[in-house]
Amino acid sequence: MRHVPLADPRGLADASPAPARPDGDSARPGASGTTAPVIVTRTTRRALHLIVPLVLPAGLLLAWYLTSRGSTALYFPPLPAILADLRDGFAGGAVTTNLMPSLSALAQGFGLAVLVGVGVGYPLGLTRGGRAVFGPILDLFRSTPVIALIPPFIAIFGIGRLSEVLLIAWSAVWPILLSTIDGVAGLEPGFRDTRRALRMSRWLEFRLIRLPAAAPRIMAGVNTATGIAITAMVAIEMFSASQGIGLYLTRAQRSFDIAASFAGALAAGVLGYAVSGVLRLIERRWLLAWHYEAQKGKR
Amino acid sequence: MAADASYPAEATAVLAVDSLRMTYPTKTVLADISFEVRPAEIVCLVGPSGIGKTTLLRCLGGLQIATTGSVRTHGSALGGTPRHMSVVFQDYSRSLLPWMRVGANVALPLRAAGVGRSERTRRAEQVLGEVGLEGTSDMYPWQLSGGMQQRVAIARALVDNPRVLLMDEPFASVDAQTRFELEDLTLRIRAETGVAAVLVTHDIDEAVYLGDRVLVLSGAPATIARSVDVDLGQPRDQLSTRAGHRFGELRSEVLREIRRY
C-alpha cells in the first residue's frame, strides 16, 4: 500500500488505474489499493460518528477541571475532589448502599409500571367507551406533579421501600398507559382483516399482531417514563429513604459537603443517562429492530 | 355465514352464493347475488369502482356478514374465514406482518390452526418454493420487492391447502411486468393444486386473461349483470392469448356490459 489516501474521496480515482496496467500481476500492491481507500473512509466516518458526540462533554469536563482547579471557594469545589467523592460514594463497596437500592427500586417500580400500563392500556385501547370514561381521570393523574404526591404516599405506605417503588410505578405508568391505549386503538384495519382471515385466536392476535403493532408507540411512552421515574426515585429518596442516591444527596446537603452533593447529582445524571441509554439500545437492537430497519428501508 | 354439512357433492361447487344481499343503514349495496364456483375454477369479478366488488368478496370470506342470503362452503369458522378458504389482499404491506420473518408470516395460518413448529417450517418452505421464493424465509417482508411480497402473501394463502382463494385486486399495487408474472403464477398454481379462485379486479384484460368466467357487477344496488364464459382454453400465454381475436371479443363484451350503466 504505497499511497493510501486517508479519507480522500478521490482516492478511488487515484488508485483505480492500477489493475489496468499491462504488467498485470506485478502490480498487485496497486490492486489492493483499489479497495483500501473505501474501507479507510468508512472507518474514518465510523470513528467520527463515535467521537463527535463526545467532543462537547469532554470539552465541558475539561473546562470544569481547568476553572475549578485549585479553587478554594466553598461552593465551587475542585473537580478532582468531586470525582474522588463520586468514587468513594458510588464505586466499590459503596455501590451496595448508595446505588443498588436505588436501581432495584427503580427496576421494580418501572417493571410494575410497564405491566400495569400495558395490561390496563390494552383493554382500554380496544374499547372506545373505555377511553371516554377513563380519559379525563388519566389526564388528571398524569398532570399531577409527582413530588406533590410524596407526602400522601409516605402517609399511606410508610417510610421506606414500598413507598418508593409505588411512587416510581405511579409516576411512570401514565405515559406508558396512554401510549399503549393509542398504540392499540390505532391498529391498521388491514391487520384486523389479517387476523380474521387467518382465523387467529384472541390470544394469538394479542401476541402476534396487536402488541407488536403497538410496540413502537408503547416504547415511546416507556422512554418518556424513564426520566419521570428517575425523578420520582431521587425525590422520594431525599425525603424518606434509608439508602440510595437520594439519601446520599440529602446527607451531603445537611453536612454542607458541597463536593459530595455535586458527586451525588453527577451520579444521578449518569444513572439516568445510562438507564435510558440501555433501554433505547434494547429497543433498537432487539425489541423494535424490525421497526427501525423497515423505516431505514423506506427512506 | 352458515355451514351446511349436507352440502352436495364437492364436484359441483366449492362455493355457492345464494341471494346474497348487503344493506347498510343508508343504502343497499348488493342485491340478489347468486353464483357458484366449481373446483379449480377462476371466477373474476369486475365492475365500476365503488360498485361493491370488495364488499362481496369480504362477505364470501367471512370478513363481513351479509344482511341476508347465504354463502355455502365446506366448514366454517365463527367470525372469520372458513378454514379451506384463504384471502389475498391488495395491500401486502398491511397484510404481511413487518415484525415477522417471511417464513413465520407464511406459516401463520398453520400456527393459528395449532400445527406444530417443525411441520409449519417444512410446509412454509415448500409453498415458498412453489411461488419461486426459495431461501427467503429468514428475511423480513420489507426487505423484498413489492412483487415478491405479494408472492409471500400468496404463499401464505396457500400454506393450509385451501380449496378457494379469494383475491382482492391482488396485483393492483405492483408494476406491469410483475403483474404479468403474478398472473401467470396464479394460473400455474391453479393448474398444480386445483385451487379455485374468486378474483376482484378493475382490469378487464386481467379478468379475461385469468378467468374461466367473468362476472360483471353493475347497477345500484349491484347485481350480477352478466356472466361471461371465457372460452380461451388453457394454458394461456401473455403474448399470444392477449393478442388473439377471441380475447378482443371477450374483452369488448365485458367492457360493453360495464359501460351500459
UniProtKB/TrEMBL annotation, chain B:
Keyword annotations of the record:
ATP-binding, Nucleotide-binding, Transport
InterPro entries, alphabetically?
AAA+_ATPase, ABC_transporter-like_ATP-bd, ABC_transporter-like_CS, ABC_transporter_ATP-bind, P-loop_NTPase
Give yes or no: UniProt keyword Signal.
Answer: no
Q: Is Transmembrane helix tagged as a keyword?
A: no
GO MF annotation: an example: ATP hydrolysis activity
Q: Name one Pfam family in it.
A: ABC_tran
Q: Which SMART domains match?
A: AAA
**What is the protein name given in its UniProt record?**
ABC transporter
Provide the species name. Prauserella muralis
